[in-house]
From TrEMBL:
GO terms for molecular function: protein N-terminal-serine acetyltransferase activity; protein-N-terminal-alanine acetyltransferase activity. Signal peptide: none annotated. It holds the Pfam family Acetyltransf_3. This is RimJ/RimL family protein N-acetyltransferase. Residues 16-187 form the N-acetyltransferase domain. One of its GO terms (cellular component) is cytoplasm. Keywords: Transferase. The keyword Transferase applies. It comes from Streptosporangium saharense. It comes from the Bacteria. The keyword Transcription does not apply.
Length: 218
């Protein structure tokens, strides 16, 4: 779409494609939400949207993406991708920022259909948006947070080089729970082979970003 260049933005990895979801992608993403995204005995999200009935999860999933598109500004944005694995929409991976042009920091969030857990997809899709943030947008930092007992999310962060950045507390199901804050600095980021960004340049003004200077001739 010429007047909304984000529709052409993609990040590809050795196994995945991350793209701004089409309406068909949203249908399939909503199906994953209805199927379930985690064990019902645990709650990994600060906003417990996944506890709703399947049909309500479908509606919330679609509305979330419509809301992010409709409220996007260069000063505040959430870039929520559909994640494609072996031709199937398996989950969503987002990065977000406020005043990115000044602060140069992104945060991330994601969920993955439960039946796709345990295949390393979560790590690969987080790596993809970090590649976009650091290599494409010129971010200085990437921040993340997870409940202390969300071992899978914390393990992904540590594997990718995040460092501890303090704690805070939230209410979960009526009980206090510790949240770990983690931070990855640009100098600690290690680019991985096989990760590529497509269609970014026309999107840069929407992110509050500028083109990365070309390396000097040798």
């Amino acid at each position: 779409m010429r007047n909304w260049p984000l529709t052409g933005l993609r990040v590809t990895t050795p196994r995945l494609e991350l793209r701004m979801p089409s309406l068909d992608d949203l249908d399939r993403l909503a199906d994953r939400a209805a199927e379930g995204v985690h064990d019902p005995d645990v709650m990994p999200f600060i906003v417990p949207w996944s506890e709703a009935e399947p049909q309500e999860r479908v509606l919330r999933t679609v509305q979330y993406h419509f809301t992010q598109w409709g409220t996007w500004t260069p000063e505040e944005w959430v870039c929520a991708f559909a994640v494609i694995f072996e031709g199937e929409v398996v989950g969503t991976q987002a990065i977000a920022a406020t005043e990115f042009a000044v602060i140069r920091e992104v945060t991330s969030g994601s969920w993955l259909g439960r039946r796709f857990h345990g295949r390393g997809i979560g790590t690969e899709m987080r790596t993809a948006v970090l590649h976009l943030a650091f290599e494409g947008l010129g971010a200085r930092y990437a921040a993340s947070a997870a409940f202390a007992d969300n071992h899978a999310s914390v393990a992904v962060s540590r594997k990718l080089g995040y460092r501890d950045d303090g704690i805070q507390f939230h209410s979960r199901r009526g009980e206090p729970v510790t949240t770990l804050r983690l931070r990855l600095a640009r100098e600690d980021w290690v680019a991985r082979p096989g990760f590529e960004i497509h269609g970014l340049e026309p999107c840069l003004p929407l992110f509050g970003a500028t083109p990365t200077p070309a390396p000097p001739d040798r």
